[in-house]
């Protein structure tokens, strides 16, 4: 039974067995999901500009795809509509949902969608047990447990989001669970802790998923995590980075450091200043990537992305990184910070995305909430079957 009181379908077989995989972010989107900002405590003393940052992001996204926005109530929807209208967003492509949230980082609390491979079909015995809608669904939801990065207490509303999305869209869903000596364990996973190339390779960090600090899945091993990635996301290879960047309260999310931009191409942030606390961990990650080989035994193409100078506010270093970009249809939104390094980062990403418009979004205020463009968005793949 879901938190909304609606019976969830019982899925037989794993997504892998039924021919699903997690697509790469650059593959065509049906829509982007995000939640409208509402909690001033997430941006202490600096909340006022945040809705306008969101409006600018939605303005760009609605040029290329639909946008689903979660709002707390009808009054919040009215305010959001007014802000978006003034900002010039295409409201005909915006869909509001009155679902209360704790925070707005839908990358981590939202559903992780999987898509059916064209060449794969379910086993005969699975077809007999699955309703026709689930067998034919091109896109489905993996509903991982969210516990606010094993750090905050207010997360229960956010944990309901994937189930609500699956019910709204009529999609089958799985709740990834593994057996432990203490019984079944529903796996905790945030979308910002992983990145995939859509062809079976996933990148993550040991700091986030294996550390005893902010421990998401106590007692769960590296091998068990790799197995659950295989079964529920269609992953054959996991590239483990070491640590994330300074100021990251998620304790090591990979979307601030290392991202796939093509099936065999990876961008990774580097810090040449040896006095900066990011220098050594980012250098180690770079060396791991250079030593890695793809499933065909060939090296990955590694593209270095600069880090911005440290962003400090109220005496706190913030997790500012150009790697927290979001890939939409025909568009890449990149966080900028009014540094000269902005131009270098935009040029690097324009080179690796030659067919997409690369747009800078000023995130100097947004980053005070300890997240940026990738953290606040979650892509929904197109529902058309693959050819």
What do these coordinates show?
With 387 residues, the chain is α/β, with parallel strands linked by helices. It has one domain (20-381): L-arginine/glycine Amidinotransferase, Chain A (5-stranded Propeller), CATH 3.75.10. Helices cover 26% and strands 24% of the residues. The chain is built from twelve helices and 21 strands. It has helices spanning 50-61, 74-87, 106-109, 124-129, 132-136, 148-151, 156-159, 161-169, 206-209, 222-233, 279-291, 341-352; strands at 20-21, 29-35, 66-71, 94-98, 112-116, 139-142, 173-174, 177-180, 183-186, 195-196, 201-205, 237-241, 258-262, 265-270, 301-306, 312-313, 316-317, 326-328, 331-336, 357-362, 378-381. The protein has a four-stranded mixed β-sheet, covered by helices on one side. A four-stranded mixed β-sheet has the order 4-3-2-21. A hairpin with a 2-residue loop joins β13 and β14. α1 crosses α2. It is globular and about 50 Å long. The model is unreliable at 1-6 and 120-134 (pLDDT under 50).
Task: Give a quick rundown of the structure.
The chain is of the alpha/beta class and 387 residues long. It has helices at 50-61, 74-87, 106-109, 124-129, 132-136, 148-151, 156-159, 161-169, 206-209, 222-233, 279-291, 341-352, and strands at residues 20-21, 29-35, 66-71, 94-98, 112-116, 139-142, 173-174, 177-180, 183-186, 195-196, 201-205, 237-241, 258-262, 265-270, 301-306, 312-313, 316-317, 326-328, 331-336, 357-362, 378-381. It is globular, with a radius of gyration of 20 Å.
Category from helices, strands and their pairing:
alpha/beta
Fraction in beta strands: 15-25%
Q: Which geometry do the CA atoms define?
A: globular
Give the CA-CA distance, first to last residue: 35 Å
Average pLDDT over all residues: 93
> Which CATH C-level class is it?
Alpha Beta
Instruction: Count up the helices.
Output: 12
The CATH H-level superfamily is L-arginine/glycine Amidinotransferase, Chain A
């Amino acid at each position: 039974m879901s938190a909304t009181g609606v019976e969830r379908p019982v899925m037989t077989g794993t997504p892998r067995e039924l021919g699903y995989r997690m697509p790469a972010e650059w593959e065509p989107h049906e829509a982007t999901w995000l939640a409208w900002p509402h909690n001033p405590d997430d941006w202490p003393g600096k909340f006022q500009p945040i809705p306008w940052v969101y409006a600018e992001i939605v303005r760009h996204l609605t040029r290329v795809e639909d946008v689903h926005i979660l709002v707390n109530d009808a009054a919040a929807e009215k305010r959001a509509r007014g802000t978006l209208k003034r900002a010039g967003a295409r409201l005909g492509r915006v869909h509001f949902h009155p679902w209360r949230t704790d925070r707005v980082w839908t990358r981590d609390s939202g559903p992780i969608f999987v898509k059916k491979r064209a060449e794969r079909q379910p086993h005969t015995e699975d077809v007999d047990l699955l309703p026709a809608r689930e067998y034919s669904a091109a896109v489905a939801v993996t509903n991982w447990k969210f516990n606010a990065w094993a750090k905050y207490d207010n997360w229960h509303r956010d944990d309901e989001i994937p189930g609500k999305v699956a019910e709204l869209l009529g999609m089958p869903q799985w709740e990834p669970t593994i057996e432990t000596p203490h019984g079944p364990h529903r796996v905790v996973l945030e979308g910002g802790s992983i990145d995939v190339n859509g062809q079976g390779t996933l990148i993550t960090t040991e700091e986030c998923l294996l550390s005893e600090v902010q421990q998401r899945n106590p007692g769960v091993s590296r091998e068990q995590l790799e197995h659950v990635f295989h079964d529920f996301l269609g992953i054959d290879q996991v590239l483990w980075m070491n640590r994330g960047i300074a100021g990251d309260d998620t304790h090591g999310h990979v979307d601030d450091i290392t991202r796939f931009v093509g099936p065999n191409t990876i961008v990774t942030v580097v810090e040449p200043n040896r006095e900066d606390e990011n220098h050594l961990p980012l250098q180690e990650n770079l060396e791991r990537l250079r030593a890695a080989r793809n499933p065909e035994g060939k090296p990955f193409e590694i593209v270095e992305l600069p880090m911005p100078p440290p962003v400090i506010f109220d005496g706190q270093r913030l997790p500012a990184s150009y790697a927290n970009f979001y890939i939409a249809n025909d568009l890449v939104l990149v966080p900028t910070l009014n540094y000269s390094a902005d131009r270098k980062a935009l040029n690097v990403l324009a080179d690796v995305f030659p067919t997409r418009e690369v747009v800078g979004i000023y995130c100097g205020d947004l980053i005070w909430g300890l997240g940026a463009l990738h953290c606040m968005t979650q892509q929904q793949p197109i529902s058309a079957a693959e050819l």
